[in-house]
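#structure-requests
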Amino acid sequence: MGNSDSHSFQAGWRNQFSDEEQTFLSNIFDTISGSDTPDETKGGKAVKKQVTLAMLKAYVHRAVIGRMTIRMYNGMRGTDPIKKSTVTDCVSKKQFLSFLFQAMRGTAEERSCIIQRMISTNPDAPVTGRQVKEFTEDMIISVIHLLRQEKMLRGWNIEKTADCILGTTRLTAYLMSELKIKGEDLPAENLHSLEINKSALKDWVYRVPHIPSLLHALVAMGLHLANSEGQGGIFSSNQVLPLCVGIKYSGMYTVLDIPSVLYLKFNLPSENQSQWTLVFSSQIHGESFSRFSTQILQKGPTLLIIKDTFGYVFGGFASCSWELKPQFQGNSTCFLFTLSPNLGVFTYTGYNDHYMYLNQGQQTMPNGLGMGGQHNYFGLWIDSNYGSGHSKAKPRCTTYNSPQLSAREHFTIETMEVWLVGNIPESDVSKTKSVLDADPEAQALLEMIGKTRIPTTRGCGKLPFLCRQMVRESDGYKGRHSGAVVDL
């Protein structure tokens, strides 16, 4: 029976791993165990190579905090391909390979078993909420350290983001709030002492995508299976963060922190997770509603993020391109969210279709940007008189079931950002009326010298000449031009 189980396991992982992957993983194990030779013999019997805790500590990536190295070791030695509840003194190659497979390609049940073994050395006993919290925080910290050390932040700069420590605390608190027993929320005041059984851990891993993604990244990078050059397949870091475009040379400091980016990414549709492009920042583009609306029109799905003067950070996901019109727009995949002081996402209730609203220059309709609720009582509202807004919810926003997002019902904007999430749809690109619509620097130049323009689709090639001409006129010939910009 034992031999049958052993052969079944070997066939299982060998069918999952390609020949190239098997060779790579075997070499990793040999490196950790300190031997690249076949199994030694002692007294005429083969002595299997094994990994000790000291060996793993010497090998594991230095960015992994010490407790997490011990956790990974416990996860490995608690993984027995035949006797699942056995905890061995050292780690065999079979255990090592089984650990890798379950941690990175396993089912929710297999991954939850790995996590349980990483938390407790007793694979059959339940764990406490406090233990799960400590494990979760260790995992987040280790992954962020690994991403930074391996230069896999994908354009994000920790020095130019919000406080990562506070962000880690908030993300840990959110992930813990998603733990449920028999479908019921756990009381926060007693969470640390509550026993979390295997069924609750399995449900947690299944429902919350952050957990398997962080575990995958931890193992892949922590054991040097992935690096900035990438190994592909099982050895990739699974692109934990979206590619950040637009802030590298800007000098701006985003209101986002890395844990908040992680949090938001997994709440977006899959097609909006891989790349985020900054299209508006009040630090760069100034405090102008006209400029703000110009920057976000016809860009595709976007994240609007606001920080008020009390330090609250909140916003909304617009699943469609913004259009300037006095009617509601969007669809049921839009949502509102809060990032500070707590993390939260608030989705469509089905009550009404007031997903998105953007209007300007109207006499009879509200002018500004809104999401959820109704006119003059939005879940999130930015007034066209830039700098002020409101978040009205007594008790909740009808469209998104969101509470008041800002510190005060009527708030003052300290910083505002808009991120394009995904690529600009071809249908929106085709709607561009002028070269100026696609060139923010040219638009800024026009505004700087007090020019207006007449939208048209003709003569795109004249833009550089026109801009140079306008600069020369503005700088030295202010009395010699008519003050109007003709069609391009």
